[in-house]
Specification:
Blueprint: E1 4-8, H1 13-29, E2 32-39, H2 56-81, E3 85-91, H3 95-105, E4 110-114, H4 120-126, H5 129-136, E5 141-144
Parallel strand pairs: 1-2, 1-4, 2-3, 4-5
Helix pairs in contact: 1-2, 3-5
């Protein structure tokens, strides 16, 4: 049985399913949950500096606010079920790397995460953070659709 489960969230409906599944599993097994939301920093480009539509500080404040809302869903679901929960927000352009790093840092023995929801050409061109976690994780990854 898993004792510490990492639950990454991006606020999507599929992430909500991963949260619900992780909380249910944790409640029934006595596990604890580590929630993480990886917010993307401002995509600075020196070429676009003169045409910036938004202040970088305001952008980062907004993505952190969204990430906080996403994390709150994990905290609320865990609290309602009486499941121990710890959460964090990380700023990074590489969510897959941060997810794996968080799992190692917190001694997680499983990752419950949502699938990307894409298929066909969009999956090939856009890539899949879930696929990267699956191929690089050293612990089991449960992917929920």
């Amino acid at each position: 049985m898993f004792k510490t489960i990492l639950v990454p969230t991006d606020g999507s409906d599929r992430s909500e399913k991963a949260i619900a599944t992780a909380v249910d599993y944790a409640r029934n097994s006595g596990a604890r949950i580590i929630g993480i939301s990886v917010a993307e920093p401002y995509p600075f480009s020196p070429l676009a500096e003169s045409s910036m539509a938004i202040d970088p500080a305001l952008y980062e404040e907004n993505v952190k606010t969204l990430a906080t809302q996403h994390i709150k869903r994990i905290e609320d679901a865990a609290a309602a079920a009486g499941v121990p929960c710890q959460t964090e927000i990380v700023m990074s352009f590489n969510p897959d790397e941060e997810i794996i790093k968080a799992a190692q840092l917190h001694g997680c023995d499983a990752i419950f995460m949502a699938s990307h929801g894409r298929s066909g050409l969009s999956r090939i061109f856009l890539g899949s953070k879930t696929q990267k976690v699956l191929t690089h994780s050293t612990i089991p990854v449960l992917v929920l659709r």
